[in-house]
Amino acid sequence: MDLRPIGVFDSGLGGLTAVRSLREILPSEDLIYFGDTARVPYGGRARETLLKYARQDVRFLRTFDLKAILIACGTVSTTSLEALQAENDLPVVGVVEPTCRRALLVTKNKRVGVIATLASIRSGAYEAALRRLDPAVQVYGRPCPLFVPLVENGRVNRGDVVIETVAREYLRPLLEDGVDTLILGCTHYPLLQEIIADICGPGVTLVSAGEESAFELKRLLKARGLRAEGDRRGETAFYVSERPENFEDIASLFLREDLHHAARRVDIDQY
Ligand code: DGL
């Protein structure tokens, strides 16, 4: 039994999809969430910049006595996971490997699509993980750079012609490639799940990064005897680097629950 919190971070709102899964899968755990809303989006940035940001995010989170960290960000997971794991003396879980394992379980025709940020696609990390796990798989990757800014602005609803047009354009080539499984490789994308599912149709199974990594974290905590168990209901504290008010409005919508405590602002440059 270990009641210390789990640290979770992302560039902004996207990691909340992982928080939602964690709250369902590990309801007794306390979470500390950091969204780097001052510097979102991460997806177009260079590897060195991403590593610098990720290190600062982790340094802030580690001002709390954490038992594990979940990188609820595809972009940081694809570019900086190994460095963060090597530098930290606690379990650090990323989204790539668990998501790829799940995709390979569901694909029947072994044609797997990956949509993610530019930095993630450029890194080749999803493709490499899929091939390592199953050399016979064919991988079709596509960056979707407009998705994150649209999600951060709440453009996530069916019938929104802007997001639907952009999504159709991004997804068309993947559908032409005949994928039967699509990895939503950026944690912002599950917020577009309905729209993506409408466009892809029932022949394509969507696999979302945040959810799979929450299961991975659960396995890891159990194996190391680090679970908080019993009837307790865990709490989540939210920190952002800019505009806490905007975050709160959209966050409660995405989490489908009210935030018990207001989001607090952190000067991330200090870390
Ligand atoms: N949600 C993040 C990801 O999973 C970051 C997106 C961004 O900031 O561009 O990649």
- The portion of residues forming beta strands comes to 15-25%
Q: How many domains in all?
A: 2
| Unreliable residue runs | none
Number of DSSP helical runs: 11
The level of helicity is 40-55%
Residue-averaged pLDDT, rounded?
94
How many distinct beta strands? 10
Structural class: alpha/beta
CATH topology of the largest domain: Rossmann fold
| Envelope shape | globular
Largest sheet: 6 strands, parallel
End-to-end span in angstroms? 30 Å
- From N to C, what is the helix and strand string? EHEHEHEHEHHEHHEHEHEHE
- Rg from alpha-carbon coordinates: 18 Å
> Which ligands does the model contain, each kind named once?
D-glutamic acid
**Biggest sheet, strands in spatial order?**
4-3-1-2-9-10
CATH architecture of the largest domain: 3-Layer(aba) Sandwich
Regarding CATH, which class of the largest domain? Alpha Beta
Descriptive notes:
The chain is an alpha/beta fold. The protein folds into two domains: 6-94 and 211-270, Rossmann fold, CATH 3.40.50.1860; 96-209, Rossmann fold, CATH 3.40.50.1860. 45% of the residues lie in helices and 16% in strands. It has eleven helices and ten strands. The chain has helices at residues 16-25, 47-61, 74-87, 96-106, 118-123, 125-133, 147-152, 161-176, 193-200, 209-223, 244-255; strands at residues 6-10, 31-35, 68-71, 92-93, 111-116, 138-143, 181-184, 205-208, 236-240, 264-265. The strands form two sheets. It has a six-stranded parallel beta sheet with strand order 4-3-1-2-9-10, sandwiched between helices. Helix 1 packs across helix 10 (209-223), helix 4 crosses helix 6 and helix 4 (96-106) packs across helix 10. The longest helix has 16 residues, at 161-176. The protein is globular, with a radius of gyration of 18 Å. The two termini are 30 Å apart. The model has no long low-confidence stretch (mean pLDDT 94). The site of D-glutamic acid has 17 residues, from helix 3.
